[in-house]
Request: fold
Amino acid sequence: MKERLIIGLDLGSSRIRIAVGQLNVGADKQVKLNLIGATEVSSQGIAKGNITALEDAVSAISSCLEQAERMIGMPLPEATVGLGGTTISSQDAKGVIGVSRTDGDIRAEDVARVVEAAKALVNPANQDILHILPRSFTVDGQIGIKDPIGMQGIRLEVDAVIVQGLSSQVRNITKAVFRTGLDISYLVYSPLATAEAICTSRQKELGVCVLNIGAATTGVAVYENGELLKAVTIPLGADHITSDIAIGLKIALEAAENIKVMHGTANPETLPKRGADIDLIDYGSGQSEIVPLRYVSEIIEARVEEIFERVDAELKKIDRQGMLPAGIIMTGGGAKLPGMVEVGKRVLKLPCAYGVTQNVSSSMPELVEDPAYSTAVGLVMWTFENERREQDGVLTAIGGLGSKGSQLLSKIGSPIKKIFKSFMP
Reply:
């Protein structure tokens, strides 16, 4: 019997990445996840999480998929796809219903109905709901209930977060994936998958902000008491740093990228005030000019500070500015830039650290440790945890309802997979 594979597909503005996980049954009869492969290709036809050229995007995804299949040695039938971009947003929603049974026993059907009631209040015609994440339930005025199934009551309320995306962009991304012959298991908002990979349950309980710094955007997910408080995408990323260097030094983007990767730091205080210089011609600029590294670092620092200031503004909107005990966890390709932690601590006035993938084994440790792969790995882990908890029949913060409740919600909440199949020729 072949072990089942779980595939995570991260559609970034700079790179498209696939991570492959395999489910194995251990000696203790427990199902475990092992990461067995990963590939990446340059992204085409995708900008800021949205499709800008369908055929180019299909070609790039197909190339990445073919590399992954060669690495694994078997075809990959379906994947969990990460969605990002500024067209995806989250908002709070509340639903209220009366319990249907005369004996007041709350069933999974009641939970599904109250979530549907919350959904009905925030479902504009041009938006598709990706996730309905119940934070807590209230039964006859008793607040803070995590799982009301089996309890007694007359009035059931839910406080939920709804993540939704612009319908046209969601359809375009889904169509591009289907055109490659790859089926879709789930569509997941990328910051949620990233948090699944690099955050512990303890950090989510205390209060934590996950920053996924990509090429064109920065994904932000804030958790407290184990639940999602806010998710948003900021239209700034590592490519903006490269552009600033190119403008500041009057050189080509390729040369600016080389300088950023080889010598860039967001903290100029780590560099000597004199003596640390570079010759621009060594990096493909086509001109010989000596430039102090400290000047390059100050250019980088200004843009990094702007990114963190935008994050701080988002935290202020939910009254969590400087008030997250677990602090900031950074990941993504843009987080590799040295000095990010120091600037983050100074601007956000919170603990800052680099994220490392948690609780997963792999024969490729470089895959687990590389922040650029955190979203792709997170998509694999999200799928694994979501399906495991569905089997257990529990309420989850990452996947909505488990077991029977999950089956009910799949009909009313996010029937993405079936809907977008109809768009295929």
The first strand starts at residue 5 and ends at 11. The domain at 200-356 is CATH 3.30.420.40 (Nucleotidyltransferase; domain 5). The radius of gyration is 23 Å.
